[in-house]
């Protein structure tokens, strides 16, 4: 009987092909993540949507982006040599004052032409970020403005009394439980929070005046910064924005500012969920980070929600009330 020989040649060829495919794949990932000049000059399109907070939120395979994601995208565009200009698309009513301020400063240090395109709403914290851009585009019916800061405190004392609940508080200082929902604010606490709100408000106004320097004076910003919401047309008349136009006009403007001729290539940043996490694996330390992040997305939604509820309860009980720069829900529906 003839002994069958091992097909070492075919095995070697298969291994070589797999190795070549792997190298090509890793090379593509490296090229995309590094944004090398081989890709040609591009416009980075960075999205800011939804309520502004620091880390975003996760639920199952879905994920909303937070300020950290936005800042990472801006920093990536700053380092990417192929990116010649940036367009920031904003569709947000605002949110955390600190997160809005941090994103504003990230845009200010970008060092490249940056154009804002407002969607349905870019108000309060959303406008805060927009004010850092070189030029702001908005549609005529966009809602923007709402420049101001707010903190709200609930008082459950009447309800507690009705159902027979009481709360005993042991504290190290008279303001440690300021904002406790089991009782009304004292006069001193109201003064304390009002001073805090006005301090954050002053920073908000100062940053807008700095970002829009040469286009609007600080006195004009103060006159408009009473919480009012403006349409895109009203905002242009009040010098809060520069031009009426949509995303395409903003991209074309950014291309000119970046010295790009012809149809500009777009590098989109953003996205959420499992696929978005994998595609943005650079943020998590490469492919291994993406795999880890995907597992986290799939498995820890309930735990995160539980921890978030505990944090909210702890904040309420300790009198913590983070200032917010958020507009009311007044987006018109075209039906």
Sequence-ordered SSE layout with sheet pairings:
Elements: H1 8-34, E1 42-49, E2 57-59, E3 62-64, H2 67-79, E4 83-92, E5 94-96, H3 97-108, E6 114-123, H4 125-130, E7 135-138, E8 143-145, H5 157-163, H6 187-211, H7 218-224, E9 229-231, H8 232-237, E10 243-244, H9 247-257, E11 265-269, H10 273-279, H11 287-299, H12 301-317, E12 324-326
Parallel strand pairs: 1-4, 1-11, 4-6, 6-7, 6-8, 7-10
Antiparallel strand pairs: 2-3, 5-12, 8-9
Helix pairs in contact: 2-3, 3-6, 10-11
Keywords:
two-stranded antiparallel ribbon, 12 strands, 335 residues, 2-enoyl-CoA Hydratase, Chain A, domain 1, disordered C terminus, alpha/beta, 8-stranded mixed sheet
Kindly describe this structure.
By secondary structure, the chain is α/β, with parallel strands linked by helices. The protein has a domain of 233 residues: 2-enoyl-CoA Hydratase, Chain A, domain 1 (Alpha-Beta Complex). The chain contains twelve helices and twelve strands. Strands 1, 4, 6, 7, 8, 9, 10 and 11 form an eight-stranded mixed beta sheet that branches. Strand 6, helix 4 and strand 7 form a beta-alpha-beta unit. Helix 2 runs parallel beside helix 3 and helix 10 packs antiparallel against helix 11. It starts with 7 loop residues before the first helix and ends in a 9-residue tail after the last strand. The C terminus is likely disordered.
Short description:
With 335 residues, this protein is α/β, with parallel strands linked by helices. It has a domain of 233 residues: 2-enoyl-CoA Hydratase, Chain A, domain 1 (Alpha-Beta Complex).
């Amino acid at each position: 009987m003839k002994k069958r020989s091992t097909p070492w040649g075919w095995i070697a060829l298969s291994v070589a092909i797999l190795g070549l495919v792997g190298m090509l794949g890793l090379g593509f990932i490296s090229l995309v993540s590094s944004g090398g000049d081989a890709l040609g000059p591009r416009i980075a399109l960075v999205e800011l949507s939804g309520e502004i907070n620091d880390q975003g939120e996760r639920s199952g395979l879905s994920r909303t982006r937070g300020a950290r994601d936005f800042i990472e995208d801006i920093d990536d565009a700053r380092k990417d040599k192929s990116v010649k200009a940036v367009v920031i698309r904003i569709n947000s009513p605002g949110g955390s004052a600190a997160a809005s301020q941090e994103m504003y400063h990230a845009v200010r240090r970008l060092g490249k032409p940056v154009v804002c395109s407002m969607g349905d709403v870019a108000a309060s914290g959303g406008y805060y970020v927009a004010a850092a851009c070189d030029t702001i585009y908005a549609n005529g019916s966009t809602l923007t403005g709402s420049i101001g800061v707010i903190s709200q405190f609930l008082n459950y004392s009447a309800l507690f009394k009705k159902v027979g609940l009481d709360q005993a508080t042991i504290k190290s200082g008279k303001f440690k439980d300021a904002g406790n929902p089991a009782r009304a604010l004292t006069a001193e606490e109201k003064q304390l929070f009002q001073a805090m709100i006005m301090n954050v408000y002053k920073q908000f106004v100062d940053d807008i005046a700095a970002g829009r320097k040469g286009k609007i004076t600080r006195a004009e910003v103060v006159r408009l910064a009473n919480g009012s919401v403006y349409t895109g047309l009203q905002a242009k008349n009040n010098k809060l924005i520069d031009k009426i136009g949509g995303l395409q006009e903003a991209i074309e403007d950014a291309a000119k500012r970046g010295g790009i001729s012809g149809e500009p290539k777009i590098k989109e940043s953003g996205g959420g969920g499992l696929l978005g996490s994998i595609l943005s694996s650079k943020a998590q330390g490469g492919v291994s980070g993406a795999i880890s992040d995907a597992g986290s997305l799939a498995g820890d939604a309930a735990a995160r929600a539980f921890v978030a509820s505990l944090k909210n309860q702890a904040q309420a009980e300790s009198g913590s009330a983070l200032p917010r720069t958020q507009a009311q829900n007044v987006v018109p529906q075209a039906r």
